[in-house]
Amino acid sequence: MSTTVDNSAEGGMLTIDQAAAYLSIPKATLYTWRTRRAGFGPRAVKLGGCLRYRRADLDAWVADHLESFDDTAAIPEQRAGDGVSLSRASRPR
């Protein structure tokens, strides 16, 4: 059992493995957000060719992506008697 403490996480700078664990997502998701969805994921810092994430940036990104349940327009109104189903269309049998 190791008794060493990882000081990089305490200082707020996380490796990609630590950032993925902090967000509870796969490491590949962070790479995908960075390469295929540029600008979507949390901001990263490149130090010596290695990606690092500041804990504050991860927290800010999470705060920016909180769901809002105030938006009532997202819930369609069902009108009685129009005969249209709001569920997904089924395929012919």
From TrEMBL:
<dbReference type="Pfam" id="PF12728">
    <property type="entry name" value="HTH_17"/>
</dbReference>
<keyword id="KW-0238">DNA-binding</keyword>
<dbReference type="InterPro" id="IPR009061">
    <property type="entry name" value="DNA-bd_dom_put_sf"/>
</dbReference>
<protein>
    <submittedName>
        <fullName>DNA-binding protein</fullName>
    </submittedName>
</protein>
<dbReference type="GO" id="GO:0003677">
    <property type="term" value="F:DNA binding"/>
</dbReference>
<feature type="domain" description="Helix-turn-helix">
    <location>
        <begin position="13"/>
        <end position="63"/>
    </location>
</feature>
<dbReference type="InterPro" id="IPR041657">
    <property type="entry name" value="HTH_17"/>
</dbReference>
